[in-house]
Each structure stands twice: as structure tokens, then as C-alpha cells.
Amino acid sequence: MHAMKKLFLTLLSAFCALGAFAEGGRIVLFGGKSVHGYGAHENTLACDMLKESLLEVLPKGAQVDVIKEEFPEDLSFLKGAKVLMMICEGEKHHPFKGREDALKKISDMGVNIALFHYTLLFDDPDTFRFFDETIGGHYEPFFSVNPHWVANLDLNSACASANGVKNPCTVDDEWYFNIRFVEGADVT
Question: 71, 77, 102, 130: which sits with the fewest CB atoms below 10 Å from its CB?
């Protein structure tokens, strides 16, 4: 868990350093129910770890709230939020399946939407268009892929992001490749 927390911290530090959150800014994290077995896709645990890491790097006065398992029907709790980050299941298990209009309302409230991993996958092409308009792309069946692979790593122990990781280490990982980005997107 320590290495995972460090990875979150490293990635999000860069995001937060952009100055997106002035004093008093607010992020809402949503960890949906997992349909995977214990230890795989720990959505709510990931949100708890992410909150802890964010509070270490965000300006004083920033607020990070975590919503677990069920997304509230009443969206008023998002008032004042700058970002909604979701770590959830996808396809038929997506927490917004049948509630896609709520995502549109959230976007219309001026809340930026960030979708992690399986949350990128709806099984409705109309929702693909919504994702393209709001976040710039989507996971597309038969185009995008999500392979598992085991990385055998020997990390540079001098790098702060490797602090606490014993070398060599292995990580069973799952990456999403070939995300369908909107035409003309400048993606690196």
C-alpha cells in the first residue's frame, strides 16, 4: 500500500501544482462498489488513500470529501466542488448506468469530472459522446484494450517516489491502452 500511496502522491502532486486549487478549493472523490474479489479494484480504499495524499499536497484550506459506494441522488452536495474524481466499476455495473443525465448536470454545474480506470467504460455509445465532450475521450470496446501484465522493477532508490519500496519488486498491473480521444486532441 505504501508504494501505491506514493504513486498517487507523485501523480497528483503534478496535477495540483498547476494551481487548480486556490485556498478553500474542494475535491469530491467517489469510490463506487466493487464487483471484483477482495484485493482487486478496492475503489473505496483507493479514495481514502487518495484523500490522504491530496491533503498532503493541496494548499491549506483545501477540502477533500469522500463519497463511498452509493452516489447521492441530490447533487447539491457538489456545490463549490471544483472536481469530482470517480473510481468505480464500468459497463452494466457503472454507478451512473441509467443516470447519465446526472453526469450532464454535474458537468453543467461547472464541476470537472475525472474518471479513473473502469469508470471510463459505459456500454452506451451516447455516453461515449458525453465523455468525449466533458473529459476528451472514452474507453471503446473492440478498440481500447486493458491487458494485465507483471512488471519486474528495480527502482531508483534515490527517487522520492520509490521511498519505502524494496528492490527488486513486482507489480501486477492493468493498463488501459488505445483510449479513443477526440479528434485533434493533443495527448502525450
Answer: 77
